Amino acid sequence: MKAAALSALENEMMVMGESVFKFEEEFAQYCGTKHAVSTGSGTAALSITLQALSIGHGNEVITTPFSFIATANSIVHAGAEPIFADVEDSEMNLSPSKTRAKIGSKTRALMPVHLYGHPSRIDEFHDMAAESGLSLIEDACQAHGAEFKGRKVGSIGDAGCFSFYPAKNMTVGGDGGMITTNNEELADAARSIRDCGRDKNNKYYHGRIGFTSRLNTVNAAIGRIQLKRLEAWNEARRWISERYRRELEGVRDVVLPPQEASFEKAVYHLFVIRTNLRDRVKKRLADDGIETGIHYPRPIHLQTPYRQKYGYAEGAFPLSESLANEVLSLPMYPTLAEDEVVRVCEALKKFLVA
């Protein structure tokens, strides 16, 4: 990666150099879409997609309250209103049935999240969107390479949006994002919006309101190398997840992540268990030198700006609120050794079984 970054630095334009366009082409090919448009972040990818679809003031977008806050923020940044529907009881992703119940006259799009690298029930959302004349935007910011019925996530809806933040399954060495789509008009609009609304062939003529959210060339060069390694890294994550499952199956007070169906391929951005002893378990593991995370300790609707702007209160989405009190992310990265996985599980079992 160092050599690729140095080569880009020495031989290409710093912004929108050749590596950017090659990265876009290769990422589109990987996802199985006709177009990919790079952006400055995953949040920008989501917001730009909404703007490219002319979704804004007076429109509503249905999404989950249990995700990183950027999912909802992108909707607000586009000028629309996020409408939340709760998650499924048996999984952590947005519920199709609860989503359908929220569709109204102002609804313009559905935005399910492939949370933690687990594909959402995207076929149901696809059919729902088609029946209702809505756009379908996949928030795939945590799911690079995940599959549903043989197709990569990000290739099923009108657009898919990815983040390359350093903690994700692949990165660009900093912030970055990507929009994938088969819609040429959407792709052209997104390219313009990310570049101050420029016309396609006239640098200082602007046909729309845009902003600056371009991926720099060095980051793109790093992304190209990371993309080549993504499949191997994802397979390592899947192996680690199965090792966790074998060690923790049947352990009292532990709910394992939903087991993927035969037609799904999860990529385990995070391995998230549930326990009603979450805070005590987290402290005990920390005492044993094991770092864990909480993704996420407060659902979006209970975050301060959403309480203040939309009047949400506790009890609005009980399943999401329950998850926020129970989820615990165990160590997960592709170079995690088997003995380290066993150590985590032994420490966890020692506390819970004692």
Radius of gyration: 20 Å
Which fold name fills CATH's third level, the topology of the largest domain? Answer: Aspartate Aminotransferase, domain 2
First and last CA, distance:
46 Å
Structural class call reads alpha/beta
**How much helical structure, as a percent, in the residues?**
40-55%
Low-confidence stretches: none
Q: What's the count of strands?
A: 12
Oligomer: single chain
Roughly what is the average pLDDT, rounded to an integer? 97
Tell me about the biggest sheet? 7 strands, mixed
CATH homologous superfamily identity of the largest domain = Type I PLP-dependent aspartate aminotransferase-like (Major domain)
What does this structure look like?
This protein has 354 residues and is an alpha/beta fold. It has two domains: 2-85 and 92-225, Type I PLP-dependent aspartate aminotransferase-like (Major domain) (Aspartate Aminotransferase, domain 2); 231-353, Aspartate Aminotransferase, domain 1, CATH 3.90.1150.10. Helices cover 40% and strands 13% of the residues. The protein has twelve helices and twelve strands. Helix 4 (70-77) links the parallel strand 2 and strand 3. It is globular.
List the helices and strands and how they pair.
Elements: H1 2-11, H2 18-31, E1 35-39, H3 42-52, E2 60-63, H4 70-77, E3 81-84, H5 96-100, E4 107-111, H6 122-132, E5 135-139, E6 147-148, E7 151-152, E8 159-163, E9 177-181, H7 184-193, H8 217-248, E10 264-265, E11 271-274, H9 278-287, H10 304-310, H11 318-326, E12 327-330, H12 338-353
Parallel strand pairs: 2-3, 2-4, 4-5, 5-8
Antiparallel strand pairs: 1-9, 6-7, 6-10, 8-9, 11-12
Helix pairs in contact: 1-8, 2-8, 3-4, 3-7, 8-12
